[in-house]
Design goal:
Blueprint: H1 5-17, H2 19-23, E1 46-47, E2 53-55, H3 60-81, H4 84-92, H5 108-124, H6 128-144, H7 153-156, H8 180-198, H9 202-217, H10 232-243, H11 246-257, H12 287-304, H13 307-324, H14 355-372, H15 375-389, H16 422-430, E3 439-442, E4 445-448, E5 454-460, E6 463-471, E7 478-485, E8 490-496, E9 511-513, E10 523-525, E11 528-529, E12 533-535, E13 538-544, E14 549-554, E15 562-564
Parallel strand pairs: 4-8
Antiparallel strand pairs: 1-3, 2-5, 3-4, 5-6, 6-7, 7-14, 8-13, 9-15, 10-11, 10-14, 12-13
Helix pairs in contact: 3-5, 4-6, 5-6, 5-8, 5-16, 8-9, 8-10, 10-11, 10-12, 11-12, 12-13, 12-14, 14-15
The chain binds beta-L-arabinofuranose and zinc ion (ZN).
């Protein structure tokens, strides 16, 4: 890892001093677009923060508003009613512990994901009441933290009947059911988001204290255990990017390196621990665990330039796309272990296709794009976003799917709450970050990955640019992009031409259109047809851009039948 430590410390101090200003440039993926090399290397392609993108569309904007105004307050109320906040009060001794906690030892993460989503939401929709509600939640969380940083209400609260998954002592069941490290991962993601949104270090300090405990306890020659449910790897990568402290990246890498069969534990494909990660080539086991793990591998690969992890996730991605992906972008076919099934085993009515797994699939594919700059990853991301992910929440914002079946005899309906509420809080944290997936950039090129009416501002190496998308997408495929160079004219515009517009139902071998009638997508510049090269799925237009330039094109959307390779 090529980190200039002097620079890092300086950036860290800057981050402390100018928390708010710097924080606002951070992203849901945890990257620093304006400061890509401040802490060393990272993804070769950079996401564009959702705060740089103002949606003006009639599809995503209303949904994100419903999430902000209905879903987030609703989840806060449900978390109160269902004991999630009491868990923290019991752990801090501010409430009698009583008989038992709520059902699952990962219930703490519902509060963390609520804070994460609310923090993203605050960045685009200021809300003083919500800001104060987060302050008091964070205070309650802080009071439940042990002096050495440990934070896990199910152990700290002295209930008469402790939940059996937690084990007798700290970290004992970390590789199986306790979710102690899973909770830490969501804590870090939420804390970084809250810092980004508000510039307040209250939650970040709680996360740092907890992460320092993990650094003290885990590592080679210390506790050599991996997280039963990944997410802490992504959380640590975000914490590393936010603080510049390399020990968090080292710990993320340790959690990947240590995963696999051990002397007294041969591992389990259920949680991807039966084979060393660098040797894994197939997607197996619990789908959310898997896709969070692959996302963490991508983060560590990008941050350390570790090619072994890259080789593994490249092969795993192929396996998913060729054998284990629903046409909706959903993953994890079977409820048995909430897991990937065998190749081609993708039943419709009994599809598990958990909402969390769809979200994880978006995270994974975004990271694969950021590594490779290829539009095929965005083809999968887009498919998942509009189908397997969005199906997880109703239009009214208060009803949710956990499994997302593809067929029904009327026996399926969304619910207002689940005892295991992971999908509910996950989708509410995802929604406000959606605009982050629309664009990406590298040094002097802009990538238009998704289509939605919006205005966005970019800072390239050569200067500033604005884009405005005018479109009714996804209801039709007519798209206009107004290009306004602000302080640079010299950059490439890379417009994704979706695979489905070129005759490919999805990347890979699994789905094919019955009627393949691809017609090249014509692109017009100021009304005149323009020649373009198709590079990695993008129409690339390089020119000396002028104010008032307009690109227009139509992505044909006839209804098409597709078939799946039979078993
Ligand atoms: O184990 C935590 C979460 O609960 C998982 O990600 C979901 O699949 C559900 O089991
Ligand atoms: Zn879930």
């Amino acid at each position: 890892m090529n980190v200039n430590s002097k620079h890092t410390t300086k950036m860290h101090r800057l981050a402390q001093k100018t928390g708010k200003a710097l924080g606002l440039t951070l992203l849901a993926t945890g990257l620093l677009p304006g400061l890509p090399s401040a802490f060393g290397q990272d993804y070769p392609y950079k996401p564009v923060a959702f705060t740089q993108v103002q949606l003006t569309d009639h599809f995503w904007k209303p949904k994100i508003e419903v999430n902000a105004t209905v879903t987030i307050p609703y989840i806060l109320r449900m978390c109160k009613e269902h004991g999630r906040i009491d868990n923290f009060l019991k752990a801090s001794g501010r409430m009698p512990a009583g008989d038992k906690m709520t059902t699952y030892p990962f219930d703490d993460t519902d509060i963390y994901k609520l804070i994460e989503g609310a923090s993203y939401s605050l960045q685009t929709t200021p809300n003083t009441l919500l800001d104060r509600q987060l302050d008091s939640l964070i205070q309650i969380i802080g009071q439940a933290q042990q002096p050495d940083g440990y934070l896990y209400t199910f152990r700290t609260a002295k209930v008469k009947h402790p939940q059996s998954w937690i084990g007798q002592h700290r970290w004992q069941n970390a590789e199986i059911l306790s979710h102690e490290l899973y909770n830490c991962g969501h804590l870090y993601e939420a804390a970084v988001a809250h810092f980004q949104a508000t510039g307040k270090r209250t939650f970040l300090n709680i996360a740092i204290k907890n992460a320092n405990l993990l650094v003290k306890d885990f590592g080679w020659g210390k506790i050599e255990k991996y997280p039963g449910h990944p997410v802490v790897e992504m959380g640590l990568a975000k914490l590393y990017r936010a603080t510049g402290d390399k020990k968090y990246l080292d710990l993320a890498k340790f959690f990947l390196d240590v995963r696999g069969p051990q002397k007294d534990n041969k591992g389990d494909s259920y949680n991807q621990s039966n084979i060393k990660l660098v040797n894994q080539r197939q997607a197996e086991g619990h789908a959310v665990r898997a896709a969070y793990l692959y996302s963490g591998m991508a983060d560590v690969a990008a941050l350390t330039k570790d090619t072994a992890y890259l080789t593994a996730i490249d092969a795993i991605w192929d396996d998913i796309i060729d054998h284990k992906l629903y046409i909706t972008g959903g993953i994890g076919a079977t409820g048995n272990g909430e897991a990937f099934g065998p190749a081609y085993d993708l039943p419709n009515m009994t599809a598990y296709a958990e909402t969390c797994a769809a979200i994880a699939n978006v995270y994974f594919n975004e990271r694969m794009f950021l590594l490779h700059g290829d539009a095929r990853y965005i083809d999968v991301l887009e498919k998942t976003l509009y189908n397997g992910l969005l199906s997880g929440v109703s239009l009214d914002g208060t009803h949710f799917f956990y499994p997302n079946p593809l067929a029904s005899l009327g026996q399926h309906a969304r619910s207002g709450w689940f005892d295991c509420a992971c999908c509910i809080t996950n989708i509410s944290r995802f929604m406000p970050s959606m605009p982050e997936y629309i664009y990406a950039q590298d040094k002097n090129a802009l990538f238009v990955n998704l289509f939605a009416a919006n205005k966005a501002n970019f800072e390239l190496a050569s200067g500033k640019v604005q884009l405005e998308q005018l479109t009714n997408y996804p209801w039709d495929g007519h798209i206009k992009i107004n290009v306004t160079p602000v302080s640079t004219n010299d950059f490439g515009l890379h417009i994704r031409i979706p695979g489905w517009a070129k005759g490919d139902a999805l990347p890979g071998d699994l789905y094919h259109f019955l009627d393949i009638n691809p017609h090249p997508v014509d692109i017009f510049l100021n009304g005149k047809s323009v020649d373009y090269k198709l590079v990695h799925g993008y129409a690339v237009i390089n020119r000396d851009w002028k104010k008032g330039d307009q690109i227009s094109f139509n992505l044909p959307m006839p209804v098409k039948k597709s078939w799946q390779i039979p078993r």
